[in-house]
Amino acid sequence: MRKIRPTSLTLVRVFLWLLTLTVFLPFAWLVKSVGPHYWENMKNLVHLDNGVVFTWLKNSAIVTFSGLLFSVLSSVMAGFVLAILEIRFRRTILVLTLITMLIPVTAMAMPLYVLINQIHLHDTLIGLILASSYYPFGAFLSYLYFSSALPKDVVDIGRMDGLGDWGVFWHIGVPLSKSLWSIVTFFSFISLWNSYQLPKFLLDSPQHSTLPMGLQLIFGDGSALVGVLMLVPVVGLYLLSQRSIESGIFSGAVKG
Asked: Which of 234, 197, 230 is nearest to 56 (CA)?
């Protein structure tokens, strides 16, 4: 096996540190732009309109975690079915999933609005949760993971032991896909927490607004404080699940 020269290793490390600093600079600028009166601004924000910010925060938490439950479960199960089970029109479903991934959220907002309005859930958090659970990227990512990381021989052994479709998923698919659950949860959380277009289309009442909607109405798009408030939970979640996310990204990259 060819050894890496110390000089080359040093150059790689310097290059990686430069990339890290390049990525960190926008975040540092964002924190600096908040200014020296950060805590004063936070205090004013907390007491705004008798604590309406806490209502927006509660709405965002309800929508994010409820939508997370539906989107992650449906995405992982759909990916498992497409990758492992023998179903009709599999290729057609995969093509449609890819096409749906390419459609921007803004283009899907109006059809989702019509569907939610037809079932009389417009301007409700339940309607927003149902619309936000639509997550084709997670389904396709799960399909790729199970196709490469779950050996067919293992599935066949499970079949020989008398496992049905649900048994194969629960006893084989779930234990072997812990990193997949982490990475789908992370990306789905980012999408739900930062969602602005769908709430804007589906919610009218200020008391039903989510945190991005409410803060945008107060500060507009140029407030660094808004950026910091929205970024902190995402950074915290990444730090907590960093190893699982990295494992999920590289799972199946080397297949023996």
From this structure: 230
Query: Both tokens of residue 104?
Result: 């921007």
Tokens of 14: 């310097």
In angstroms, the CA 138 to CA 60 distance is: 21
pLDDT at 33: 64
Structure tokens at 113: 């609005």
- Whole-angstrom Cα distance, residue 175 to residue 172? 6
* Residue pLDDT, tens place only, 142-175: 999 998 888 888 888 888 888 888 888 898 888 8
For residue 171, give the DSSP letter.
I
The CATH number of 52-250 is 1.10.3720.10
The first and second tokens of residue 206, run together, are: 């200020």
Q: pLDDT-based confidence at 248, cuts 50/70/90?
A: low
Q: What is the pLDDT of residue 63?
A: 93
DSSP character for 3?
A: P
Q: Where are the alpha helices (DSSP H) in 35-51?
A: 38-46
3-class SS string, 11-75: HHHHHHHHHHHHHHHHHHHHHHHHCCCHHHHHHHHHCHHHCHHHHHHHHHHHHHHHHHHHHHHHH
What are the two backbone dihedrals, phi and then psi, of residue 214, each rounded to the nearest 5 degrees?
-65, -45
Report the percent of the chain where pLDDT is more than 90: 18
